[in-house]
Amino acid sequence: MNEVFRARCAHDEVIVMKSAFYGRMQLNRCITVDMGYLGCSSDVLDLADQRCSGRRECELRMPYPAFEATRPCYDLQSYFKADYYCLKGKPTLSRSRDISRSVKDLIS
User: Fold this and answer.
1) What is the pLDDT of residue 78?
2) Among candidate residues 28, 25, 29, 27, the one with its CA nearest the CA of residue 39
3) What φ, ψ does residue 35 adopt, rounded to 5°?
4) What string of pLDDT tens digits covers the 108 residues of the chain?
5) Rounded to an integer, what distance in angstroms lies between the CA atom of residue 53 and that of residue 7?
6) What Rg value do the Cα atoms of the chain yield, rounded?
7) Residue 66 in 3-state DSSP?
8) What are the distances in angstroms from CA 59 to CA 2, 73, 86, 96?
9) Model's pTM, two decimal places?
10) DSSP string, 4-46
11) What is the DSSP letter of 95?
């Protein structure tokens, strides 16, 4: 599966990753019948944070090696599902893996 995840915010906003999973989370996405492998997934929010949070735009091509390394569904084909939001701010030069958690703490 060669898909691309794209996140983009306005010029005065940055991406904050909210959730990110890699695996086989639901029917009708790569599979139509549950044969015992539905629901296998890895929480890859930390990995997605490193690549996307704090930037104005982000692109991840699947299969993404760091996600594949988590092997959530053994050798079965997996897919990426993520949510993000845009927050007013300037893009960061460093990739802080804790940026989304820090922002969520401020908002909560």
Assistant:
1) 82
2) 25
3) -110, 30
4) 578 999 999 999 999 999 999 987 766 555 555 555 567 889 999 999 999 999 999 999 988 889 988 877 776 778 899 999 999 988 875 544 445 555 555 454
5) 10
6) 15
7) helix
8) 13, 23, 15, 17
9) 0.74
10) EEEEE--TTEEEEEEEEEEEE-STTSS-SS-SS-TTEEEE-HH
11) -
Provide the pLDDT for residue 108. Answer: 45
How many domains, in total, are found in the chain?
1
Supply angle C-alpha 84, 74, 21, rounded to 5.
10
Give the residue from 95, 105, 108 showing the smallest Cα distance to 15.
95
Give the chain's end-to-end CA distance (angstroms, integer): 37
Q: Residue 92: which of 43, 49, 34 has the closest Cα?
A: 49
CATH number for the domain that contains residue 48 = 2.60.120.740
What is the residue range of 88's domain?
4-107
